[in-house]
Amino acid sequence: MTKTAAIAIGRNEGARLHASLDSLKGVVDDIVYVDSGSTDGSLAAATDRGALVVKLDTSVPFTAARARNAGIARLSEGVAPEFVQVLDGDCILQPGWLETARSFLTENPTVAVACGRRRERFPEASVWNRLIDAEWDTPVGEAKACGGDALIRWSALQEVGGYRDDLIAGEEPEMCVRLRAKGWKIWRLDAEMTLHDAAMTRFGQWWKRSKRAGHAFAEGAALHGSPPERHYVRETRRALVWGAVLPAATVLAAFVSPGIALGLLLLWPLQAMRLRARGLDWAQAIFMTLCKLPEAQGVLLYHWRHRRGIKTQLIEYK
Q1: Same domain for 154 and 235?
Q2: CA 138, CA 124: separation in Å to the nearest integer?
Q3: Measuring CA to CA, which of 32, 166, 186, 251 is 20 to 30 A from 307?
Q4: Based on the structure, what is the number of domains in the chain?
Q5: Do residue 197 and residue 224 come from a single domain?
Q6: What pLDDT, in 10s, does the model give residues 6-53?
Q7: Domain for residue 213, yes or no?
Q8: Using CA atoms in the order 85, 132, 164, 78, what is the torsion angle rounded to 10 degrees?
Q9: pLDDT tens across 83-108, in order?
Q10: Is residue 81 located within the same domain as residue 148?
Q11: Same-domain status, 93 and 163
Q12: How many CB atoms lie within 10 A of CB 239?
């Protein structure tokens, strides 16, 4: 059997990390756990479970991309695997996933990344968890990008040099842009892959996560926004139009013509109704409309920091 390794990353995940590492035992040859400054005993828990532990230097800003690259570097010190499963420390690998994904990659040598259905572990816990679960229900088949959980061909990882350390979000789609530029394919399989525990119970968490998405859109567009890729250009433009230009125009119109301001305000419920007509439930339709506000905030934050040469810092929602 071909050698398969796993890289799990986390910080203060507690019992979620324990479950994540336990799901990997016996199904991969090597487990690397990369820790980003945990204070909850995660390092000891990973060691007890037989993982190779990498502790990131706390003097350098943490990013998930940096942690995954550290895991790749640790695996490079030994016999390199043919495939590596990456996952976040708040995720549990589903039984049978690796066999399915490995077989697919073996039979399709031009595919670099195989990913499946990531589900929220407790979608009933909050509307935010339910929204995340729906967000991950993406089409099966050839795709442009994967998320944080995926089985990746080691040779493809090496060819593109892994992830970009400095990205605070959107590092997986960015790497997939570079993989596809090299002729590799990304594929979503009709198979259960992981269970995720977002533990999102507050509006503020949802807002921060959406803000981080906007930051990722802006940075991705800055890196790969030129033709033919146009990476995240549409998402960035949409966030700015709905989350910045429209609110600003509404406020200005209020000083000129209340009628015009009211008409602009009505665009928001109309947009939600349009999304509802496309088959989304009301929660999805409403929050997909409202999320443009924090997304625009994230876009503007990226450009403000970039123009001033300020180092990007994590936007954490939990």
Answers
A1: no
A2: 20
A3: 251
A4: 2
A5: no
A6: 999 999 999 999 999 999 999 999 999 999 989 999 999 999 999 999
A7: no
A8: -20
A9: 999 999 999 999 999 999 999 999 99
A10: yes
A11: yes
A12: 26
